[in-house]
Design brief:
single chain, 187 residues, alpha/beta, 2 domains
Length: 187
């Protein structure tokens, strides 16, 4: 999904497990146009005729990121296939991406946020999503929004840190080392 505000030269690119459904809904409420596909990127928006390369010059293109430690707990909680959290992390860290049962759509090259960061010039953080979004909206001349609470993760208990032991923490730190550093996230 993506939302485009042509006249404001603003695009929001949705990413999994980052409050994207709530963000999309709020942006549509203030006049944004939703793209046709789920998790569309810039190339998809061009193909749909929503934006052009010339339009992108000077446009604000943003996406949302989330601490990988936290996002992995949500992923496991929502898509548990009978494995313990520990087994899930060990599998993710040790098996080739193509055999992790659908994870290649989520994890690629040790990165969770591979889909849209390269096309974005504004990055929102899930941990402070409302404030970050309102700041970007203000910068492009759009009103602040109220983010509805959508898709809460059923069965998730407490802070993500409680799901990790020293081994699983170390595996995630190794697997996502570049992304953790580049996005300035820690355990």
């Amino acid at each position: 999904m993506a939302v485009v505000f042509v006249e404001h030269r603003f695009v929001y690119l949705a990413h999994r497990y980052t409050g994207s459904n709530a963000t999309i809904d709020a942006l549509e409420d203030i006049g944004g146009r939703r793209s046709a596909g789920h998790h569309d990127g810039v190339s998809d928006l061009k193909a749909q005729g929503l934006i052009t390369e010339d339009w992108l010059e000077g446009a604000t293109v943003c996406t949302t990121v989330r601490n990988p430690f936290d996002a992995l707990v949500t992923w496991w909680t929502r898509h548990d296939r009978g494995r313990s959290f520990r087994d899930f992390i060990v599998c993710l860290a040790t098996l080739p991406e193509e055999v992790i049962g659908g994870s290649t759509e989520i994890v690629r090259g040790g990165r969770l946020y591979w889909m849209h960061l390269q096309d974005s010039n504004a990055v929102l953080r899930f941990e402070r999503l409302s404030a970050d979004l309102d700041a970007v909206l203000s910068r492009v001349g759009l009103p602040a929004v109220q983010l509805p609470h959508r898709n809460p993760t059923a069965g998730r208990e407490g802070d993500y840190r409680g799901y990790y032991d020293p081994t699983t923490r170390a595996l995630v730190e190794e697997l996502f080392a570049v992304e953790l550093a580049s996005l300035d996230y820690t355990f």
